[in-house]
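Try this one yourself first.
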């Protein structure tokens, strides 16, 4: 007879004991890469953080700046001269790529960034064949698929930052509306990290109290409180930040640090991250989309069998179709 755990989680790969001396490589020292670096350094979750970028002067300057503050940190910080210096990394975080322009859809970035990945991924795989790849570059879901294909790694060792940040924004905005801290709000955005993401209103709750049980019209146009606008704000928030300051950085850096901590310390925390979800919720294509996943030292250790309303499943399938339409045209 199936246990509650069996019914809740589809096991992928059990985590392994935590090994001391974890090395993290971050590819790209732009605003996002450096936000990831400082967040990981401040969290004290790696023994070695190695940075690599094609812009040698920028790389040298950023690493020098961090090294000058090494008295206040407990991590070795290194600038890689080439990919051989990234060898034996436990976790490789890819943030490099062409920056998203104001008003540009994440999907429009794709082919330009595929060309960048053709240089990065094979080199990471060559020098760190046992690493976990964490893709942050946009459009993250498609580029995670690209990283999986180019690396030849098993799917549990290739994931994207996905909707971990979207879900944090979702919880923050709900908390603001309810005047409570976002840590007390529980809810997920799934699917694409982008315009076709899916808010799981059916599972959104505060201390176990379902918001939809209090307001059945929560996700419809019939709601006078306009809760549906929260998801619209989540989708538009990155564009708004880019419009105001030119790029997003701090929130994604903190989000990536939380994922890195779950992996490096084998915490088995549930995060909505981009993973190969073929066979789940009726999806038949090789697409990477976000579902709540258990993260540990093996990468993705399991995927939650999240119950969805029919409308939510329909939206998730549409999200997969949107990505597959682009993916099948890619020149890898």
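Now uncover the answer:
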């Amino acid at each position: 007879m199936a246990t509650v755990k069996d019914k809740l989680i589809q096991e992928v790969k059990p985590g392994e004991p935590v090994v001391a001396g974890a090395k993290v490589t971050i590819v790209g020292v732009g605003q996002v890469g450096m936000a990831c670096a400082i967040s990981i350094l401040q969290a004290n979750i790696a023994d070695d953080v190695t940075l690599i970028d094609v812009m040698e002067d920028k790389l040298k300057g950023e690493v020098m700046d961090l090294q000058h503050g090494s008295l206040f940190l407990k991590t070795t910080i290194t600038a890689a001269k080439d990919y051989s210096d990234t060898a034996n990394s436990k976790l490789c975080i890819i943030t490099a790529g062409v920056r998203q322009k104001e008003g540009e859809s994440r999907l429009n970035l794709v082919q330009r960034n595929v060309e960048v990945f053709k240089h990065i991924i094979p080199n990471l795989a060559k020098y760190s064949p046992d690493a976990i790849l964490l893709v942050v570059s946009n459009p993250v879901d498609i580029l995670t698929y690209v990283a999986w294909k180019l690396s030849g790694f098993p799917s549990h060792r290739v994931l994207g930052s996905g909707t971990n940040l979207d879900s944090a924004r979702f919880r923050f905005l709900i908390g603001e509306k309810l005047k409570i801290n976002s840590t007390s709000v529980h809810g997920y955005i799934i699917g694409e990290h982008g315009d076709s993401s899916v808010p799981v209103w059916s599972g959104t709750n505060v201390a176990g109290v379902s918001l939809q049980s209090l307001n059945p019209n929560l996700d419809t146009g019939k709601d006078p409180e306009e809760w549906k606008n929260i998801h619209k704000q989540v989708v538009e928030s990155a564009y708004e930040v880019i419009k105001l300051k030119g790029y997003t950085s701090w929130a994604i850096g903190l989000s990536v640090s939380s994922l890195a901590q779950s992996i490096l310390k084998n915490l088995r925390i549930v995060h909505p991250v981009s993973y190969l979800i073929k066979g789940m919720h009726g999806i038949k294509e090789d697409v990477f989309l976000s579902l709540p996943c258990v993260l540990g030292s093996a990468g993705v250790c399991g995927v939650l069998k999240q119950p969805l309303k029919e409308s939510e499943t329909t939206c998730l399938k549409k999200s997969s179709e949107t990505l597959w339409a682009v993916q099948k045209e890619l020149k890898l």
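Discussion: Residues 110-127 form the longest helix (18 residues). The chain has ten helices and 15 strands.
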